[in-house]
Amino acid sequence: MALCSHSSLKDLCAPSSSKTIPYNNGRSHSRLTRRIRMSSGGGQLATYEEGKLERPSWTGETPLSRLVGALISFKPLFSVLKLGARQVLISTAEKTNIPWRDMTREILESDVYKEMDTIQNASVEYPD
Length: 128
Description:
Largest sheet: 4 strands, antiparallel
Helix content: 25-40%
Distance between the termini: 25 Å
Radius of gyration: 22 Å
Strand content: 15-25%
């Protein structure tokens, strides 16, 4: 779902509509979308867009967007980027006085994995 804010309070509810999306090669495709507009209380409207979207409307088609998409789709590089993002999240949490590493150590040293073995269903394949 894509999110877009509007500053006007008109058209609080819009019915389903068909929207034509032009592609870079000149072709156009229609898609059926449902738009829901709701007031956020701050004088702005938020629009949620559902439908068969090829990609979220905020991604764009700029060369930078395509480059980032290509880099992310390369599996070994994605693994490195994912590790870097994790480190940024941990350091940001610790800068805001959240003891991330201490909490992680506490969870890993607890009996949570023993409990997990008793409640886990062997016939179900759980994601990583």
